[in-house]
Model the fold of this input.
Amino acid sequence: MGIAYFEDSRVFKLDTPNSTYMIKIADEEGFILHLYYGRKLSDEKVDDLCRINQHPFVPSKNERDRCSFMDTAPFEYPGHGLGDYRDDAFSVLNGDGYSATSVLFKDYKITKGKPGIKGLPATFAGEDECDTLEIIAYDKVNGLEISLFYSAFRDVDAIARSVKIHNTGKYGCVKLTKVLSSCTEFYGDEYDTIFLHGTWARERNIDREHLGYGKHYVSSVRGESSHQEHPFIGLLSRNADEDHGDVYGFNFVYSGNFIAQAEKSQFDSVRVLMGINPVDFCWNLKSGEDFEAPEVISVYSANGIGEMSRTFHDLYRKHLIRSKYRDMKRPILINNWEATYFNFNTEKLISIAKEASKLGIELLVMDDGWFGHRESDNSSLGDWYVNEEKLHGGLKYLVDEVNKLGMKFGIWMEPEMISPDSELFRAHPDWAVQIPGVKPSMSREQYVLDLTRQDVIDYTFGQIEKILKSANIEYLKWDMNRQLTDLGSAMLSKEAQGELFHRYCLGVYELQERLVTEFPDLLIENCSGGGARFDPGMLYYSPQIWTSDDMDPVERLKIQQGTALIYPLSTMGAHVCDCPNHSTGRTTPFYTRGYVALAGTFGYELDVTRISEEDRKRIPGQVAMYHKYNPLVRTGDYYRVASYNDNKEWDCWEVVAKDKTEALVTIINVVGRVNHKARLIKLKGLDPHKTYSLRYYNPETGEEDDEYLKAKGDSLMYAGINMVGDYHGDCKGRLLHVLEV
Ligand code: GLA
Done:
């Protein structure tokens, strides 16, 4: 059992393979306090560590004497307004208008396995893979029962936390104004933070900073996890790097508004909070009802940032993604968006499919523009019927023709949206999120459907279902191209308007849950204007997510490094783009575009009928490269060797097989170097005692060259190899295959 309770010391000890988390119930008061999180400990006797001894301010006892402050107490779930002036996790407005909350210990349960969370995505685990502690606390003033859940995984160094609030009904309806999902306290070290920042076409760039005093946070109030900031926070000891030092990572399994905050207090303690953003959140919890807050994953690594990433990857591959495609090589797709934009018809798509099928591409994805009268992005969202002026013969005819070529067919939809110029909006103007009497603001010339309404959810699902059943559609790209504004729902009462953001997110989850239940064989790729909803919540419904609209391989180095900080390579939608690239105008070698896309799901987004003959001839070799290396890329351990983000010159990552018999090293030389012949690369993650043979992949032949070197794992890792290459010219890439002999 990974969780134990020690009666004498009133300590809970949660163990994962290499980490320990401890909680103490303190004083007769029943404070639930944080004791320890870090490397695995053999017993629970660490009382001395605990700032609990400093006696927090307890009004009934010490009347706030000179040196007792609640600000010194490391609370597991801090309430509001009773003397702890750091940011709290939980506040309310009760029937009398009071906001204070207290969270005191009442009882606990330890069970095997892991419960789900109603209506929300969450990690899952069998009885022999995980143990769960439920601490039941009470808030006497407001008549609430608060369950704090902690699930400790037995196979990965991760803990999943969530919170359930139950209204016992003592004081009627209580408005929840803040229900965060986790609070973790740190003390005694100097820390750095890692946040992920971005914008459209530049998602998840890594931003590392020293943590000074005060509150430092990222958040979203956009109704989705967003391009701009990410529901992740890394807390690192100052000396931590890729391979050394203490690193804690927190990631929110949710796709709506969030806050992720680190606060360094006057006494040098650090409080890390994560949960639903309290801005514009107000939930009416009636007597007898429960509110379940989404889950936070925390990962501890004693060996630097790289190990944190590998732990997240393992956890998500095994305990979050449900799709049957999770463990499968995905079909190589070709998407027509940047090939044609809105300018296509049946003949054009068939001509792309004909050429693509000859080259070994396996799936044609028809992107935006096939429905209503959509010729640009200014109309028809919501009118999910085929535009037969473009698709002569209809959808089934097109799909059948593509299938006859031996290819699968996929389709793009944006189910959460409604265009003002659509039949749907003309019939149901009140279905858009809006404040009655105020013209809502547009973004990309569209409004957001009010998915807090069951009638809208049911109608939308019916539309998706009808399309998917009308032909042999085997893949769906689910897009979401604008963020929420003008918060108002025609169906919610005036008291309940503060529930809109969260209810919207629950509506999206309900739709996607129905989709995966009814179409278990459908391969789904979530997307939001590129990668604005690349979060663990969406991975629960789709095994892959479109990473960014920017496919330029140099830009992608940063985007994919930031994304792979948390998410497995198998989840990152990545395509070989057209050239010059449509976002940056940059010209890059075809091979380099392929190597960068190989670190994701791999596909094409260009017009194969129009690219140069030379590049077209390169595709079958690239297809073979994907088939050869994808099983390793999808399942292996990811190591970062060099970062273009940091050194501004070159990038290198490595994927090592779990049994350490094989590795694939990708090197991208972004900026050429004059008079430079070789680069020292120290490989990572190999078995020091195994002997490996090293071969470069030759893109011209599509085969590997003759053995270049044979060496023991320890030499390859500690002495390194001299990577001899062509350092003239920009954006050159190479693949090195390392195989045990
Ligand atoms: C978003 C997506 C793109 C494409 C367009 C279509 O921007 O990220 O890949 O599907 O929408 O409008």
In short: The radius of gyration is 27 Å. The pocket of alpha-D-galactopyranose is lined by residues 337, 367-368, 377, 412, 479, 481, 527, 529-530, 546, 549 (CB under 6 Å). The CA atoms of residues 68 and 274 lie 27 Å apart. The chain has a mean pLDDT of 95.
